[in-house]
Design a protein that fits this description.
Layout: E1 4-7, H1 17-32, E2 36-39, H2 53-63, H3 87-99, E3 103-106, H4 110-122, H5 138-147, E4 151-154, E5 161-166, E6 170-175, E7 183-185, H6 193-203, E8 209-212, H7 219-229, E9 236-239, E10 242-243, H8 259-264, H9 269-277, H10 292-298, E11 309-310, H11 313-326, H12 329-336, H13 346-357, H14 363-370, H15 391-406, H16 413-427, H17 431-443, H18 451-458, H19 460-474
Parallel strand pairs: 1-2, 8-9, 10-11
Antiparallel strand pairs: 3-4, 4-7, 5-6
Helix pairs in contact: 1-10, 6-7, 9-11, 12-13, 15-16, 15-17, 15-19, 16-17, 16-18, 17-18, 17-19
The protein binds glutamic acid.
Length: 480
């Protein structure tokens, strides 16, 4: 059997990292088994469409390096891969079910359904369709369907249970009486998600349906639709949600959840893939830094955990730092390029990168740490003053540092360091304290690339200029 799996996003917004995690698992499974990954756009809920969402899905998946084999733009043997372009297929499928007696036309008006719901709610009953149209003789119903607005509903059997052996959750069963005669085809000729997903998974030859936990409650409906068609149910797996720190499904209120946001914030796709894979899957070893290829080789559905994994931005930062350090300088420069102003001298940037690479957690942080080399710095004067000292003493310390630096034969790390150490001894200050104002004066920040290298990169002239300016600020020359 050739594995065929699918990723079936609805274009209702830009790509969410929870969906990416589901896609990754499908992707690993497909690649490992030499199978096919299908991208299918599920846009049957036309009211929820968001313009640009399909582009965002494409951009996000491409950025992450995930390639699929069949899809809306790639084509494939089951084209079209956008559900709104497949309406005749669903209409035909619904007709078959009606003709076979497994579904029926329903002519109930919106008003009637609303009144029914209100009545049931008032009586504290489960609100559900009362099967009013189920008993209309088929010939009469078929005739009315030619003239009257209608939907098609599934004839849900009475009693019993329906269940599935989910590959993650194990045996899951539902009493059939909890399922109403659900709508399969709406009055505008669009299928519901439930009909479309079952028809497409079947006709597209999907061998394994892997999706988010959110869809588990819909599964009994799908099982009944498979049964109505007489089709075999493919193996199903539901992946537990990615959770926010409060244990609820990761959502906007927890911070960024959209792939494009992480891209703009300077995260590497390698780190996103690596970290997201580990939310809900454990490789069973201590190792945790994996490339996409390694994940293809290692990921096993048996190791997916039933409990939802928590999203942790600090962990992502850690992975991003690891992946930043794994890049060659040329590659790092290439990744950084779109985030860096055109006027920054690329040769200087390249020279500076090794120093910032060691510490930065994101590309944006890396860029910001090096900004001092390419333009003026701004800071609050107070930032210059180390804890336990005052402005006058700091100005004096800066003056001594400047003198030491001015006298060096060569303005290079190996000369700068001893010079600043001597200044610190002379002052009787800790090195950390005496170098602090130099760092702030030169870089505008209290943390960043190693100081001696930072000074060397900036050059003597600009270093001394900035130190002078800082002294002037401390001596009452205004704030900047
Ligand atoms: N279209 C659904 C979504 O947007 C996916 C459902 C499925 O994978 O079966 O998440």
């Amino acid at each position: 059997m050739t594995v065929r799996v699918r990723f079936a996003p609805s274009p209702t917004g830009s790509l969410h990292i929870g969906s990416v995690r589901t896609t990754l698992y499908n992707y690993f499974f497909a690649r490992r088994h030499g199978g096919t990954l299908v991208l299918r756009i599920e846009d049957t809920d036309q009211d929820r469409l968001v313009p640009g969402a399909i582009d965002s899905i494409y951009d996000g998946l491409h950025w992450l390096g995930l390639r699929w084999d069949e899809g809306p733009r790639e084509g494939g043997p089951h084209a079209p891969y956008v559900q709104s372009e497949r309406l005749p297929r669903y209409q035909q499928a619904a007709r078959e079910l009606v003709e076979g007696g497994a579904a029926y036309f329903c002519f109930c008006s919106k008003e009637r359904l609303a009144a029914l719901r209100a009545q049931q709610a008032a009586a504290k009953q489960i609100t559900r369709y009362d099967r009013h149209c189920r008993t209309i003789p088929p010939a009469e119903a078929a005739d009315r369907a030619l003239r009257e607005p209608h939907v098609v509903r599934l004839k849900v059997p009475d009693g019993g249970t329906i269940g599935v052996d989910d590959l993650v959750y194990g045996r899951v069963e539902w009493p059939i009486e909890t399922i109403e005669d659900q709508v399969l085809l709406k009055s505008d000729g669009f299928p519901t998600y439930h009909l479309a997903v079952v028809v497409d998974d079947h006709v597209m030859g999907i061998t394994h349906v892997f999706r988010g936990e959110d869809w588990l409650p819909s599964t009994p409906k799908h099982l009944l639709i498979y049964r109505a068609f007489g089709w075999e149910v493919p193996p199903l797996a539901h992946f537990p949600n990615v959770l926010g720190p409060d244990g609820r499904k990761l959502a906007k209120r927890h911070g960024a959840t959209k792939v494009e946001q992480f891209r703009t914030d300077g995260y590497l796709p390698e780190a996103m893939v690596n970290y997201l894979s580990l939310i809900g899957w454990a490789p069973g070893t201590e190792e945790e830094v994996f490339s996409a290829e390694e994940l293809v080789a290692k990921w096993r559905i048996e190791q997916v955990q039933k409990a939802g994994g928590k999203w942790d931005r600090d962990r992502l930062d850690w992975f991003d730092g690891v992946w930043i350090r794994r890049l060659s300088i040329d590659e790092l420069l290439r990744r950084l390029d779109p985030l860096v102003p055109a006027e920054w001298d690329r040769a200087l940037l390249r020279r500076a990168l090794p120093f910032a690479q060691e510490r930065a957690k994101t590309l944006v942080e890396l860029r910001d740490q090096l900004a001092f080399l390419f333009g003026d710095v701004a800071y609050a004067t107070d930032l210059l003053v180390p804890k336990g000292h005052d402005g006058a003493a700091t100005a004096d310390a800066l003056g001594r540092s400047a003198r030491a630096l001015r006298g060096l034969a060569r303005f290079a790390h190996d000369e700068i360091e001893p010079a600043l150490r001597r200044t610190s001894d002379e002052l009787g200050w800790k090195m950390r304290d005496s170098s602090h104002p130099v760092r702030v004066a030169v870089t505008g920040r209290h943390a960043g690339p190693p100081l001696f290298d930072a000074l060397e990169l900036l050059g003597r002239e600009r270093t001394l200029e900035r130190i002078d300016r800082a002294r002037a600020l401390l001596n009452g020359g205004g704030t900047r």
